[in-house]
Amino acid sequence: MELRQEENAIKFPIPYDVAALVDAESPRLDKAAICQGGGALSLRERGLALFILCYGDDADVKREALLALHDLATDEKLALAEDDSLAPDLLDLLLRVSFRDAEIVRNLLPKGVMTATTLRWLAAHGDAGVLDVLLEDVSLFQDEEIVAALMANPAATPDFRALFEATDCIPDADETGAAEAPPVKAPAEEESDEGLSKYQQALEMGVSEKIKMAMTGDKEWRGIFLKDSNKLVSGAVMKNPRITDGEVLGVAKLKTSSDELIRLITLNKDWIKNSEIKKALVFHPRTPLPKALRFMAVLTEKDLKIMAKSKGISQVLVNAARKMLTDKAK
Questions:
Q1: Smallest Cα–Cα separation from 87: which of 19, 194, 7?
Q2: Shortest CA distance to 176 belongs to which of 144, 151, 132?
Q3: For the segment 259-287, what is each residue's pLDDT rounded down to a tens digit?
Q4: What span, in angstroms and rounded, lies between the C-alpha atoms of 228 and 5?
Q5: Helix axes 128-135 and 116-125, enclosed angle (nearest 10)
Q6: How far, rounded to the nearest angstrom, does the alpha carbon of residue 138 sit from its chain's CA centroid?
Q7: Could you give the dihedral angle defined by the CA atoms of residues 210, 212, 213 and 216, in that order, rounded to the nearest 10 degrees?
Q8: Using CA atoms, how far apart are residues 59 and 63, in angstroms rounded to an integer?
């Protein structure tokens, strides 16, 4: 997904009634009332008003408006997110204040309203659920600052870090245009050279050698061979006794993982005991439907609500999620 370019000036039509309330000359009490939910404004009108106040000159009103946007109920945020007539800048700000609401982030991402500034904010401050949603599209993480912000986020648990590394989002020196190393090597550079030599060795290996190394090698070897186009090689990684649950979760969450890799995960009883892996499999497009339906038992009500509105999975699963929600409500 491409990030939206930020604009120097924000322009969009504002209803007269809203403009009169948020004008620079309007009484501060009127603006405070909007922040507190008073008045006869519709949800859309209040959203527009809060957005304008967030960019006003009064620091106190600005803070109150941001908090008001943040404190909107999830269903109100969803209603705003689904309003295609709203300016992209407003929806981008809605994304930013929803850094602890994965459902809102999941609904807004496909609209292409997010700017790089907001992505950096979400990467640095988003909770684990939001980070999971962001990681579903690894193309978002092409900027070193964004990667650094995400890895420094306290919500990035060890399992999440393992998942993040498994998706190979971190750009290497060639991709980022880093300067050439100085003549005297530091220890970290020696490790980098060793990693590069492993990749070079892999290029020279035959299929049988790759399979053997995939089944016995360390994490770096496993990462190399998981990306191999030969399914016998990538499948051999899943038979490596040293592979961790975090790495398996990374494979299950990566939408480009092959049918064979997903099949091998579903056949392993130990991995299927992990509820996070089950959840990832439910959302994976290559998980066989019968298994995905069976694994839905681990989903929380929040997960089911996300699935019930998802457009990227089978309609069978969407219908099943809606039925489970209906049954829970009885």
A1: 7
A2: 144
A3: 889 999 999 999 999 999 999 999 998 99
A4: 35
A5: 130
A6: 8
A7: 160
A8: 6
Q: How many residues in the chain?
A: 330
**309 residue type, one letter:** K
236 close to 227: Cβ distance less than 8 angstroms: no
Q: Provide the CA 139 distance to its chain's centre, in angstroms.
A: 11
- The amino acid present at 62, given as its one-letter code, is K
Q: How far is CA 284 from CA 97, 215, 324, in A?
A: 28, 25, 19
Contacts by residues 55-60 (CB-CB < 8 Å, ≥ 24 positions apart): 55/10, 56/22, 56/24, 56/31, 57/24, 58/28, 58/31
Query: H or E element: which one contains 63?
Result: helix 59-71
pLDDT in tens, 139-168: 777 777 777 787 788 887 665 555 555 444
For 14-138, strand residue ranges (E) read: none
Query: Contact 307/282 with Cβ under 8 angstroms?
Result: yes
Residue found under tokens 């000359």: 25
pLDDT tens per residue across span 99-146: 888 899 998 888 888 888 888 888 888 888 888 888 777 677 777 777
Which two structure tokens, joined as six digits, stand for 8?
A: 């120097």
What are the domain boundaries of the chain?
1-113, 115-172
Q: Whole-prediction pTM value? A: 0.46
Q: Is the sign of the CA dihedral 221, 260, 166, 168 positive or negative? A: positive
Tell me how far apart the alpha carbons of residues 94 and 104 are, in angstroms, rounded to a whole number.
8
- Confidence (pLDDT) at 23: 75
d(CA 174, CA 38) in angstroms, rounded, equals: 55
Tell me, rounded to whole angstroms, the distance of Cα 212 from its chain centroid.
34
Which helix or strand (DSSP H or E) is residue 306 part of?
helix 301-308
Residues 6+ apart with CB under 8 A from 51: 65, 69, 87, 89, 90, 93
